[in-house]
Amino acid sequence: MKKYNTIILAIIFTLNLALFGCSFTSGDVHDQVTVVGQITNKKGEPIPDLPVNPEPTFFPRPPIPEIGISTDENGEYSLHLPPGNYNFNIIDNGEAILTENVNIKRGEKEKRLDFTIDP
């Protein structure tokens, strides 16, 4: 009987760990906000192939599946993020050339973030 109690306790403990771990996830795909935008220079010309790196400023930090995105040939980008505060880093030659703090609110379907930089 003691062996069965030990097995039952081990199963309950394992299930509690699994459920506790799930409580810290950022939510499902329905909680994510589509963030779109364009990066241009001061003349209004699009800047292609420029990395955009959203860095969460809150804990626990959610997984960001599209962490390595770059602008397309029109200087546009699109990614999906859970709600929260982020530092959006625009990177050139491995260095952040622009960092802007952005709040993405729960319930937003799409957020537009355009940036103008002086390369």
Tell me what the structure shows.
InterPro entries: CarboxyPept-like_regulatory. This protein has one helix spanning 2-22, and strands at residues 33-41, 51-56, 69-70, 76-81, 84-92, 95-104, 110-112, 115-117. The chain has 119 residues and is an alpha/beta fold. The strands form 2 sheets. Strands 1, 4, 7 and 8 form a 4-stranded mixed sheet that branches. The N and C termini lie far apart (73 Å).
Low-confidence stretches: 17-27
Order of helices and strands: HEEEEEEEE
In DSSP terms (H or I, runs of 4 or more residues), the helix count works out at 1
Between the first and last Cα atoms, what is the distance in angstroms?
73 Å
- Computed CA radius of gyration, to the nearest angstrom: 20 Å
Question: How many domains make up the 3D coordinates?
Answer: 1
Oligomeric status: single chain
**Helix proportion range:** 10-25%
* Structural class by sheet pairing and helices: alpha/beta
Looking at CATH, the homologous superfamily is: Carboxypeptidase-like, regulatory domain
CATH-scheme architecture: Sandwich
Strand content: 35-45%
Summary of the model, kept short:
InterPro entries: CarboxyPept-like_regulatory (IPR008969). The protein is α/β, with parallel strands linked by helices and 119 residues long.
SSE arrangement:
Elements: H1 2-22, E1 33-41, E2 51-56, E3 69-70, E4 76-81, E5 84-92, E6 95-104, E7 110-112, E8 115-117
Parallel strand pairs: 1-7, 1-8
Antiparallel strand pairs: 1-4, 2-3, 2-5, 5-6
